[in-house]
Design goal:
The protein has about 425 residues and is an alpha/beta fold. Helices cover about 50% and strands about 15% of the residues. Helix 3 crosses helix 5 and helix 13 packs antiparallel against helix 17.
């Protein structure tokens, strides 16, 4: 009997050790193949058979003196902390944790942070209770704002032979918002809880860029100066800049950071980031291009800047240890396939654009690339950052410029509806049981 019990114990032990090695191998592959760009994260993170360790420096790694450790049996608690606690709480709790295991008391405190709020699944619909956040890229609700953002096309007869009208104006911000509105209605019909990061030509702050300049610019700059986050020289320079220069030197990144806050505040199960692309080599986008590709971006390809502060390190570990990365890859793969099907568009390869070759890492799925974009890196949910087509393609621009169809009360065109359908179909497949 004793021999049998010992045999069972050793079989269990071998099975456990094998499972631990499999986990370690999975995390090693994810870290070095997809998340780190040219090995830049490697000096600060170590994967063992039992845990993931984060270090302040490469010397600390050599001395095995980690800043904090997350054991594999602590991943669920860690995920609840990172996704639900405010940044100052995350930092304080991880500092307190250090190299030790979490106590039952701390685990209970973190569990309280996890709230399944607003998840009314009483309706028998496919997406009942699912929380989905849609981010319509950019902020332009009119052509003037798209010029400030530099996210527009303007084709005129002098440069485009056989143009059927005097000029064609296309604003990416208008296209993304129309797509988001239609997609929101489609998802709500299936029972989902859906939010948008912005409304029409408003920013994620709930007001237009011009309104923000007149009511909040001075307050924000003063605050940053007073707390030491901005030097006086830069403060004086920003105060004098015109609205277009200021948009690019300050507001764009400031508003992007706020989008991240808006998205994470809603604790989405899935985030859809909508963009329309252009041919990078089509100089000034004044005439059509023959090229047309679809693609999607997921988290990854990160450099050492992603590890700034404990919160940055915790966020990198979230992508390493939780299911956010593989689920992002899954929804992105489904979306790219739907783009290609609905739009009859080519799926991009790494050689089809310089930014794909130089700044991205190919995921395991065709047309899905790991890219160190702020929204990809900082949004705390599975996500797809979609680039459905080239607006300046010779077969696209005329259709995209139209507003001759109405869907859910939204005046737009058949191409925008096809893009929305692609996202919708991908989401339905993603949640298919």
């Amino acid at each position: 009997m004793l021999k049998i019990k010992l045999s069972i114990f050793f079989c269990f032990l071998l099975s456990f050790c094998f499972a631990q090695r499999e986990l370690a191998l999975k995390y090693e592959t994810r870290l070095h193949t997809y998340l780190t760009f040219k090995g830049s994260l490697s000096p600060f993170i170590k994967i063992t058979e039992t845990d993931a360790r984060v270090y302040k420096s490469n010397q600390d790694k050599l001395n095995d003196n980690p800043e904090f450790i997350i054991a594999y049996d602590e991943i669920k608690t860690f995920e609840q902390l990172v996704k639900n606690a405010p940044n100052d709480s995350i930092e304080a709790i991880l500092k307190r944790k250090g190299k030790t295991k979490w106590s039952k008391k701390t685990k209970s405190e973190i569990q309280i942070l996890y709230e399944n709020e607003d998840r009314d699944a009483s309706e028998n619909k496919p997406l009942s209770g699912k929380r989905i956040l849609i981010d319509p890229g950019h902020i332009a609700g009119n052509f003037e704002m798209s010029v400030i953002e530099q996210k527009y096309l303007r084709f005129v007869k002098d440069s485009v032979p056989n143009l059927p009208v005097d000029s064609i104006h296309i604003s990416e911000g208008i296209l993304t918002f129309a797509t988001a509105q239609i997609l929101k209605k489609q998802l709500e019909e299936q029972g989902a809880l859906v939010w948008l990061t912005r409304d029409d030509n408003k920013t994620s702050f709930g007001i237009t860029y011009q309104k923000w300049l007149s009511t909040r610019k001075q307050i924000v700059l003063d605050s940053l100066l007073e707390c030491g986050a901005m030097e006086k020289t830069k403060y004086n320079k920003l105060k004098k800049e015109d609205e277009k220069t200021f948009f690019w030197s300050f507001f764009r990144d400031h508003e992007l950071a706020n989008r991240v806050k808006v998205i994470n505040k809603h604790k989405p199960d899935l985030t859809i980031i909508i963009h329309y692309n252009v041919d990078e080599k089509n100089t000034d986008w004044l005439r059509p291009t023959d090229k047309n590709f679809c693609m999607a971006f997921v988290p990854g390809g990160m450099n050492v800047d992603a590890l700034k502060g404990i919160n940055g390190k915790a966020n990198v570990l979230r992508l390493l240890l939780t299911d956010d990365f593989p689920l992002s890859e899954k929804i992105s793969d489904l979306t790219v396939k739907e783009f290609s099907k609905q739009l009859e568009n080519q799926v991009a390869k790494k050689t089809d654009a310089d930014y794909l070759k130089d700044n991205c890492i190919s995921s395991s799925k065709q047309g899905v690339f790991c890219r160190n974009l702020a929204l990809c890196r900082l949004v705390k949910s599975p996500l797809v950052y979609g680039e459905c087509l080239y607006q300046d393609n010779k077969n696209e621009y005329l259709e995209l410029s139209k507003a001759d169809k109405t869907y859910y009360g939204i005046n737009t065109n058949t191409r925008v509806k096809a893009v929305s359908d692609a996202y919708f179909n991908a989401i339905m497949q993603f949640y298919k049981k």
